[in-house]
Write a structure and sequence with these properties.
- The protein is an all-alpha fold and 589 residues long.
- Strands 1-2 form a two-stranded antiparallel sheet.
- α27 runs antiparallel to α28.
- It starts with 83 loop residues before the first helix and ends with a helix.
């Protein structure tokens, strides 16, 4: 097994400090997205993307800060470009400055979308789609595609400021649990181009990554651009971490006097101050009476090595578990379960999850359950016989006859790829699903002639086949009898095949009527998706496709929507992603 690579530096406590949002109330006010701290209802599976859900100045709902602050949406979407003489004062030479005309951290060579991915789409409309999108999504592959679209180096759409557009993208990434990607997008904007909205989002990315130190260079600008009193305490932490303990203490006292923070929130800030040079103050954090986990608490506790009680994690949304999985400062043992959840969501790759279990295997003090899983995983990948490797994988997948957890299929993907093809294998469906969970489509195609027609393995193969040139006959579709919710899976198989163009027109019409899948139905969402596809805007198509998947699980994705999503992605050159999404529907139901 591969060894876990040394993590990138997460918290440079000797160099900089942390952030706290603005002040003003006795009780901290969360600005977390829905799902953090309190339950929120998800929208029904009938999106209305074409109805432009919020006004440009609408408040962006909650990212977890724990102290009151104006949200990024409180500022106008369009931010004036600074005067030329102000830009001239910027310290970087002209050749090193980055333009707001295109912002993003990955290019097409790294899997990103093209620079014109949003074409002539209206910027404020795209921002509203992102701002109101309820994440995380039920599909691993849709989540991965959405992340790629949001981090891509794309042209700033018309009608919005490039920094504001970056802020909206990072904000959505945070709600998806993609803390590191969110930070990358925010940091792709030069600090002299930051807007009030981007200052707000950057604060949250710092906390979500457990790396509040990255906010130190932004404190002066944050004070100037937002006027929020919370930057006072952030400055105190910066000063303390730079070794000026006495001055930091004065700033903390002032913040306390002005009710900037209290209770555990103030103590966490003081603990950050105390970690700096000359910091002699020992601060003990007690969670008794703390009823919820906010980004402020998560970020500062993570940065200072304070363990957060499991019950606080349990009361937070799924996003925070993915942040937890990505935070290298959190002990390995506390990241195992969150890492599996993150892998199932697409936040972590198969390789990253295997690396984590490799580190568990190498550690001397691993808990019994993770250590046993690591041993089974080692056998699954390196066992001396096929029988031994298959037995280890079955152990990882769980009870015989039960559907494996999708995260465990991700974990075993490359081990499954090493299993020789065997006709009649009762493990074929799990093996194919496992390989496809990591995108190993050509490897999975080795099983094409060895699986039973009409079973789940066959269905996933005909959907994921990258070299398909012919059509699937109506009789083959009608003969599909998958496990689990067979009726829904047959409708989703039809939707995927039709969207991929793998059914003859006559068979599409016949199957749609027989299965009662209204693929011709129209609403504001379908019309918006069709327009974006016709205009050749892959970025807009991805956003709208994600809007169509705002539901807690695959059971809530209507076949009609899957048909539209798969077809639109295919039409803008994203057929590979469309195939993986369609096959995932069969694997997860």
């Amino acid at each position: 097994m591969r060894r876990l690579a040394a993590p990138a530096a997460g918290v440079s406590l000797a160099l900089a400090a942390a952030w706290i949002p603005a002040i003003g109330q006795d009780r901290p006010e969360s600005i977390l997205p829905p799902g953090f701290g309190e339950p929120t209802s998800r929208p029904s599976a009938a999106p209305t993307a074409g109805s432009t859900p919020a006004s440009p100045g609408a408040t962006i709902e909650a990212l977890p800060n724990g102290l009151p602050t104006a949200s990024p949406g409180d500022t106008p979407t369009a931010t004036p470009t600074p005067d030329a003489h102000l830009l001239a004062e910027y310290a970087l030479p002209s050749f090193a400055r980055r333009s707001l005309a295109q912002v993003g951290s990955i290019g097409t060579g790294d899997g990103g979308l093209p620079g014109d991915a949003f074409g002539a789409a209206d910027g404020p409309y795209l921002e509203r789609l992102m701002r109101t999108l309820d994440a995380p999504l039920p599909s691993r592959w849709m989540s991965i595609l959405l992340r790629r679209a949001l981090v891509s180096a794309v042209d700033t759409p018309q009608g919005v400021n490039g920094a504001d557009f970056a802020a909206e993208r990072a904000w959505l990434l945070l709600r998806m649990g993609e803390s590191l990607s969110a930070r990358a997008v925010a940091q792709d904007v030069d600090t002299n181009n930051y807007t009030p909205k981007l200052y707000q989002v950057a604060m949250n990315t710092a906390l979500a990554t457990g790396d509040p130190a990255q906010l130190c260079p932004l404190i002066d600008g944050g004070v100037r651009e937002t006027g929020e009193a919370g930057w006072t305490l952030a400055k105190a932490m910066c000063v303390g971490l730079s070794g000026e303990a006495a001055r930091a203490g004065t700033l903390v006292t002032q913040a306390k006097r002005h009710n900037v923070a209290r209770g555990v929130d103030l103590l966490l800030a003081q603990k950050v101050v105390g970690t700096g040079a000359q910091g002699r103050q020992a601060v003990t954090i007690e969670w008794t009476g703390v009823d919820r986990l906010t980004a402020w608490r998560f970020g500062l506790a993570t940065a200072t090595g304070v363990a957060i009680p499991d019950e606080l994690y349990a009361g937070a949304g799924r996003q925070v578990n993915y942040w937890r999985a990505l935070a290298p400062a959190i002990p390995l043992a506390a990241r195992v379960a969150p890492a599996e959840a993150a892998a199932g969501q697409g936040v972590l790759s198969n390789a990253a999850l295997v690396d984590l279990y490799s580190a568990v295997d190498a550690a001397d003090d691993s808990a019994a359950a993770p250590a046993a899983t690591a041993q089974d995983l080692k056998t699954a990948y390196t066992g001396t016989t096929v029988d031994a490797r298959m037995a280890a994988m079955r152990q990882l997948w769980g009870a015989t006859g039960a559907k494996p957890a999708y995260a465990r299929l991700v974990l075993t993907a490359r081990a499954a790829a090493q299993i020789p093809v065997a006709s009649g294998s009762g493990d074929a469906s799990a093996l194919v699903a496992s390989m496809l969970s990591a995108g190993l489509d050509r490897t999975a195609m080795r099983w094409r002639g060895s699986v039973d027609k009409g079973g789940d393995a066959w269905a996933m193969i005909v959907l994921a086949d990258p070299d398909s040139t012919g059509s699937i006959g109506y009789g083959d579709l009608a003969g599909y009898s998958g496990s689990g919710d067979a009726g829904l899976k047959q409708r989703l198989l039809f939707a995927g095949l039709a969207g991929l163009g793998r059914l003859a027109p006559g068979d599409i019409e016949r199957a749609a009527e027989k299965l009662n899948v209204r693929i011709g139905a129209e609403n504001a969402w379908t019309r918006a998706l069709d327009r974006a596809a016709r205009a050749g805007q892959p970025g807009t198509v991805v956003l709208l496709a994600a809007v169509g998947m705002q539901t807690p699980s695959w059971h809530g994705v209507p076949p009609e929507m899957l048909y539209r999503i798969v077809g639109a992605l295919r039409s803008v050159g994203l057929e590979g992603d469309a195939r993986m999404i369609a096959a995932e529907a069969i694997a997860r139901l």
